[in-house]
């Protein structure tokens, strides 16, 4: 019975492709999310994910691969954010908000005026069950590139995340490392487009890293925990969406959010409920010790408490 439940969805080829795309995108997004959470680039991830929309539409118009247009506009968004931030009194959060909303609005306008037999709205909300063989190859190639570069440069990127000044002092270029991380972010956003769409990409880029951050103090462990949690959540969400007939992209993100909530509340070390329970036990122990001490002082000898 269990085997039937597990294998039944994959009698359909589109579900097999959806599973492969989910695993790849979940792993890559979670890997990069570890650095994004440490640096505090949650809004930057949201900006790049939204800014790629006009690139995807223009790629469709020019009959080019969607990934090419998305990567170009992702890098363009990063460049524009840096230019606005460094060119005057505008702070980084304001620059990010201005650039990504403007580019996202441009993408929506292009969709509205583009004559198309293809529903381009699936770019915004994802189309996991419509992943073709060519799309899967594209996702796999981009995912492999991001994974290899991130793992090869993990020490430099980690030092940049913790202490850019120290990275500069030992001969590394923080500006170049930041640009590399932003480039990887653009590629990763494209990888997850087909899975959850532009609107929910930021969840896959932040939630796994935040969950792992609550579970460990070691970054090397975090790099293992985040992809593990993300992939398991992705597969679980895909199964639930199949049997409940819901949106697969939305269900994947919902499962990730539920896992984060569980860790946030009941985590073994930092969970809110766990800490309240632990503090309650400590308080009870302290009260017993104080009462025992008072009994000893009053009677001169230790006597059992009522």
Which word captures the global form?
A: globular
Could you name the CATH class of the domain at 2-203? Mainly Alpha
Supply the helix-strand structural class: mainly alpha
- Give the integer mean of the pLDDT values: 83
Total DSSP E strands: 0
Give a quick account of the main beta sheet: strands, pairing sense, barrel closure. none
List the uncertain runs. 301-306
Percent of residues in beta strands: under 5%
N to C succession of SSEs: HHHHHHHHHHHHHH
CATH-defined superfamily of the domain at 2-203 = ABC transporter involved in vitamin B12 uptake, BtuC
CATH architecture assignment of the domain at 2-203: Orthogonal Bundle
- What is the straight-line distance between the termini? 56 Å
**CATH topology title of the domain at 2-203:** ABC transporter involved in vitamin B12 uptake, BtuC
Rg is: 24 Å
The helix tally amounts to: 14
Tell me the helix content: over 70%
What can be said about this structure in brief?
By secondary structure, the chain is an all-alpha fold. Helix content is 81%, strand content 0%. It has helices at residues 2-7, 13-39, 42-51, 53-61, 66-86, 92-113, 122-125, 133-152, 154-162, 164-169, 174-215, 219-244, 248-266, 272-299.
């Amino acid at each position: 019975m269990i085997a039937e439940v597990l294998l039944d969805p994959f009698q359909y080829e589109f579900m097999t492709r959806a599973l492969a795309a989910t695993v790849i995108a979940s792993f890559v997004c979670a890997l990069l999310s570890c650095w994004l959470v440490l640096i505090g680039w949650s809004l930057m991830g949201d900006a790049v994910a939204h800014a790629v929309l006009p690139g995807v539409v223009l790629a469709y118009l020019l009959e080019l691969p969607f990934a090419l247009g998305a990567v170009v506009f992702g890098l363009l968004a990063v460049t524009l954010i840096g230019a606005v931030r460094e060119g005057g009194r505008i702070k980084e959060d304001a620059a990010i908000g201005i650039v990504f909303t403007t580019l996202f609005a441009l993408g929506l306008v292009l969709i509205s005026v583009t004559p198309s037999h293809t529903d381009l709205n699936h770019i915004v909300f994802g189309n996991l069950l419509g992943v073709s063989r060519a799309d899967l190859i594209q996702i796999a190639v981009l995912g492999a590139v991001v994974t290899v570069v991130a793992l090869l440069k993990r020490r430099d990127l980690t030092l940049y995340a913790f202490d850019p000044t120290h990275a500069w002092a030992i001969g590394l270029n923080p500006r170049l490392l930041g640009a590399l991380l932003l480039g990887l972010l653009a590629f990763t956003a494209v990888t997850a487009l087909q899975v959850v769409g532009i609107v929910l990409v930021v969840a896959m880029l932040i939630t796994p890293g935040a969950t792992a951050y609550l579970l460990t103090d070691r970054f090397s462990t975090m790099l293992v925990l985040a992809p593990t949690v993300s992939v398991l959540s992705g597969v679980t969400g895909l199964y639930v969406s199949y049997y409940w007939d819901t949106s697969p992209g939305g269900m994947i993100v919902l499962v990730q959010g539920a896992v984060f909530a569980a860790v946030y509340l009941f985590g073994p070390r930092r969970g809110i409920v766990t800490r309240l329970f632990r503090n309650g036990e400590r308080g009870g122990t302290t009260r017993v010790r104080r009462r025992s001490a008072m009994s000893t002082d009053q009677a001169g000898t230790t006597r059992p408490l009522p």
